[in-house]
Amino acid sequence: MLLELRGIRKRFGGIVALRNGTLSVLAGEVHALVGENGAGKSTLAKIIAGMVSPDGGELMWQGRPVRFERPADAAAQGIAMVHQESLLAPHLSVAENIFLGREPRLPLGWVQRQRLYEAARRLIEEHRFPLQPEWRVERLNPAGRQLVEICRAIQHGSSLLIFDEPTSALSEAETQEVFRIVRGLRERGMGVLYITHRLEELRAIGDRITVLRDGDTVYTGMLSEITTDEIIRHMVGREVTAIYRRTPQTPGEELLRVEGLTRRPVLHSISFSLRAGEIVGLAGLVGAGRTELCRALFGLDRIDSGRIWLRGRQVRIGHPRDALRLGLALIPEDRQRSGLAVRLPLGWNLTLASLPQVSRMGFLRADQERRLCDEYIQRLRIRAESPRQLAGRLSGGTQQKVVIAKWLLARARVFLFDEPTRGIDVGAKAEVFQLMDELAREGAALLMVSSELPELVQVADRVLVMRQGRITAELPGGASQEQIMRYATVDTQTTLLDAGGDSHQGQTI
Question: Do 297 and 416 touch, CB atoms closer than 8 A?
């Protein structure tokens, strides 16, 4: 027995994160931890990693009681964590991030940079990651940053490794590489605590499973002895037969039309249209250009050529301000870096795109802002202590709801959803899709980027498929996953570098 937690409790203000967190991890096993957003998974993992102190309960490490006051205490015992949201230093290189705080040094304290880069190169080549030690982390996309996090955790030589949604931003090929790494760690006798919302991943690598619901451990057992439907029932406390299935409706007027949009070298002559009342899926592998298309339409990246029409009028979108004025909204892939001001209160995030609605003559109307915040918090069932709670302290699923609510409040008519359910559990996915369906029925047009093919099959009225910066197919709703993958197949290796360079990093959309 490496780790055992008994009756762990934790409260954040008025929110109970954990009531009775009970968990054990054996050496040489992969233990899956699942549950809905807000169930307490990340809080439990952060307590193990020394990032959060529990209010009660007992934590046992290798048979003796311990208490970690800070991450360094957990690291000293051999516990490391690969976080869902990147905690890397963006201005440093891949190699410097891997060895951050443990750099090889000369007797006088100077860093031996040649040894550092050679060691990083050996580690990267050993695991066959498509990275270079010299690359700056700020130029990596989410998939690349996740691989650096994994390298750093492995390099530290831990006995217990915690993976918090490690594959949420990875392609299928990269996900399989993560699985290979996890299996190798298990074979070396390490314990792995694996947190994921992708239930289909569990049986590929997991041995045992623990399910949390509303801060309580409701099930622990062997994965081989429980079905996926039973896991979902434990997670949500009810039967869930499908993510969400829309009833098709007749589309209305054309709200968005794009002709020949080009942004070299990532987008080539893109043409499509969106009509009121429809959800159009956008499929493709990592590197196909889906996120780049959304960024170009929203005015974050300059386009080289092409024309855009909104509601029958040709427009020029050179800045997100133009998109906001024209009723175009973007829910970005990376909510923490690009969708939220994480150091501002939840309420301020909700109204950032709608300041004219909550101000008069340049002065903020606090009463109007409070009324709108309460309305949208209730409408989207946002779990928070109050509108004053910092956005960065919300769970991942709740943060995504705040990003969506921001644009609902801004009364946008055309929505660009880039991976809207990334890091969201099955129950919250149904809520997000129901919300998207409501938007469509109210006359909005939605473009939904998703790497989850079952989502596209079940939700989209049409599916556009991208490959190497081009739209290669337009398929009807209900097209098979095999059809979509056939048109999305990429023969050449894709890069993990953002095509836009580092000029756009850190912008809040």
Answer: yes
Amino acid symbol at 145: R
For residue range 344-384, what is the model confidence (pLDDT) as tens digits? 888 888 888 888 888 888 888 888 888 888 888 888 778 77
Lowest mean pLDDT among 331-340, 435-444, 482-491: 482-491
Instruction: Tell me what pLDDT residue 193 has.
Output: 95
- The pLDDT, as a whole number, for residue 495 is 42
Helices 426-441 & 396-409, crossing angle to 10 degrees?
A: 10
Amino acid at 152: R
Reduced to 3 states (helix: H, G, I; strand: E, B; else coil), residue 5 is strand
Element (H, E) at 408: helix 396-409
Q: Distances in Å between the alpha carbon of 409 and those of 329, 347, 376?
A: 11, 12, 8
Pick from 74, 99, 94, 117: nearest CA to 155: 99
Which two three-digit tokens encode residue 7? 């009756």
Contacts of 183 (CB under 8 A, 6+ apart): 205
- Give the count of alpha carbons within 13 A of 118, CB side only: 5
Residue 57 confidence (pLDDT): 94
Predicted TM-score (pTM) of the model is: 0.58
Task: Give residue 388's pLDDT band: very low, low, confident or very high (50, 70, 90).
Answer: confident
**Cis peptide before 90, with omega less than 30 degrees from 0?**
no
Any idea what the Cα angle at residue 242 is, between residues 251 and 401, rounded to 5°? 70
Model confidence at 17, pLDDT cuts 50, 70, 90, reads confident
Residue with the two structure tokens 């947190």: 195
- The rounded distance, in Å, linking the Cα atoms of 197 and 425 is 5
166 near 30, Cβ under 8 Å?
no
User: What is the Rg, in whole angstroms, of the alpha carbon atoms belonging to the chain?
Assistant: 23
Q: Whose CA is closest to 387, among 349, 429, 413?
A: 349
Buried b (16+ CB within 10 A) or exposed e, 348-363: bbbbbbbeeebeeeee
Tokens in use for 338?
A: 């690009």
The C-alpha angle with vertex 352 and arms to 396 and 299, in degrees rounded to 5, equals 90
